[in-house]
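EI: anyone free to look at a 253-residue chain?
SC: sure, send it
EI:
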Amino acid sequence: MPDAIRGHLDSRVGEHAGVLGLFLCPASRLAELITELIKVKPVKPLALSLVIDTGLGGVPKAVSIVESRSELLALRMVEMPAPSDVDEVWLERVSEFVPEDVIRVVEPRRGGAEWLDGVRRVIEHGSWPKLRCGGVSSENFPSVHEVADFLAVVSGGGVAFKATAGLHGAVRRTAEDTGITHHGFLNLLVATARSLSGKDVREALASTDAEALVKEASELSDQAAHAVRGVFASFGSCSLSEPVSELEELGLL
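SC: here you go
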């Protein structure tokens, strides 16, 4: 926790602070976060995304704790996994528990047509759907077709989404240690642009041609770029520096 906080605050004042989003913290580690922030005494409250790992019933208490320490924390987002059947009753409780000015991010369980139905219900309810792009095993990595189907639903839904896990690099690649192919966050960005303009999404997701992806991203008009960011709004990363380093190497920063 001390390392994570120090790294985040240092990046906040760095040259590329603009690409850094919120500090993510599981609800189960909230007390630890507050303890460390008391020691650090941040200049302004830490903009927080609260990741609910204590079940939906734990949301009110976690939100209350954050709001009681407004000198240290500013709640901007609440993220949580959804049950396999994402129904209206469950989503209504999410709305009741999370303040109106806080972004709600809900992750429907992936797999089959029911998954996309869940994504649609999340969108209709005014929450951001979350797309999990990887994890500890190959089953956690969605196929190109599954990501394309997700983008088709989200692009037509008029709402933003957040991606998480597995996006360790800008461009699609196969990890040497595991043999698992990872999606690239630049692929996802270009694919989102194509989804909005009716072009071939799957080709963009499957591409390993960094030069072509960079060219396509660089040629987006300001209007198109804003539209893309309005949909692909955020992605979580294990590293604060690696995505920035890759984008620098690719000439995109």
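EI: The beta strands are 23-26, 46-51, 73-81, 103-107, 128-132, 161-164, 173-174, 181-182, 232-235.
SC: 👍
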